[in-house]
Amino acid sequence: MSTSAGSALTGPTSRPGVLAWTSTGTGTGASRGTIGLLHGVMSSAGSWWKVGPALAERGWEVTAVDLPGHGDGASIASPVDPVGALVKGTLPNLGRHLDLLVGHSLGAVVALAAANRDPRLASALLLEDPPGIRGMDRSLFADGVVALREAALADRDAYWRQSRLSHPLWQDADVDQSVAALIACDAGEVARALRGGLDWDLCELIAGVDVPVMVVLAPEVEGAIPVIQGSALVGEERRAVRALLGSERLVEMEGGHSLHRDHPEEMTEIIDRFAGEVTGSAR
Predict the structure, then answer these.
(1) DSSP-assigned letter for residue 33
(2) Cα(104)–Cα(178) distance, rounded to whole angstroms?
(3) Mind listing the pLDDT tens digit for each residue in 7-58?
(4) Bridge-partner residues for 35, per DSSP?
(5) Burial grade of 57 (CB within 10 A; 0-12, 13-18, 19 or more)
(6) Is 195 helix (H, G, I), strand (E, B) or coil?
(7) In 80-228, at which residue ranges do the beta strands (DSSP E only) sit?
(8) Are 121 and 94 in contact (CB under 8 A)?
(9) Looking at the predicted structure, is the pLDDT value of residue 6 above 50?
């Protein structure tokens, strides 16, 4: 199965690297506004296959795009400024001004960096389990990206079964999409970006945007490996983000790093509610 925007799993309208779901839920023909969705590392726009159409049913115009180095996305290219290259390769497919830009994991970093570069990009940001950078061994992470893709290529069925066991809350279609996206991503390019300077400061990025920001986090599991077991944002960085945003703009949800796959209905509700607050169209 392809992870590109043309996958039968993912939505009614698409072009390479982009999925779009048209508002179907207002009953008046008018949409409530626009929402953009950015996926995490080694994934693709297709990871939003449940949340995207669910938001459209609630009246939103929704666009999900492949990040550079993933699916049908552009090349990351720049070893000097990987974050800038990710932003540059993503913005053309997001297109117009958005009422809300949602980013998961690496997509959250790209969303923040893009909003810092273009204040008109979005009226608000929602970050799903954004990753911290302190204490992360990026070289080891890069090795892991390459190794995971090689394992999936070597025995796709075995990798699928292992992924199924590792993510008990996912539907089989989520596992299908995840495995296909891993195989489709340019693991070498992603690994080079990690080794070559892919760096960020979440608090600095959040403080740099002049729009409302909401963060939804998986639990911090003491002694666990971030992302693999629990949230990607832990320790001092997690506490700093909490202090910066306050309790009203930081939500914790049971589940793993990919909350929109673990709990698509709950994530849809959170996204819809926040977007409604931003646009004044709360229901």
Answers:
(1) E
(2) 14
(3) 333 345 678 899 999 988 766 667 899 999 999 999 999 999 999 999 999 9
(4) 62, 100
(5) middle
(6) helix
(7) 100-104, 125-128, 213-217
(8) yes
(9) no
Half-sphere exposure of 48 (CA within 13 A, CB side): 35
* pLDDT tens digit sequence for 225-256: 666 778 999 999 999 999 999 988 999 999 99
Answer whether 7's CB lies under 8 Å from 47's CB: no
**pLDDT tens readout for residues 145-181:** 999 999 999 999 999 999 999 999 999 999 999 999 9
Q: For 168-222, what is each residue's pLDDT tens digit?
A: 999 999 999 999 999 999 999 999 999 888 889 999 999 999 999 999 999 998 7
Please determine, for residue 5, whether its predicted confidence score (pLDDT) is greater than 60: no
**What gap in Å lies between CA 230 and CA 249, rounded to an integer?**
20
The secondary structure of residue 123, as a DSSP letter, is S
Is residue 82 within 8 Å of residue 198, measured between CB atoms?
yes
Of the candidates 43, 269, 72, the residue with the CA atom closest to the CA atom of residue 174: 43
| DSSP code for 67 | P
Tokens standing for residue 271? 């996204």
* Tokens coding 118: 């273009």
State the CB neighbour count (10 A cutoff) for residue 116.
18
Structure letter (DSSP) for residue 90:
H
Is 150 buried (19+), middle (13-18) or exposed (0-12) by CB count in 10 A? exposed
Kind and range of the H or E element at 216? strand 213-217
Residue type, 51: V
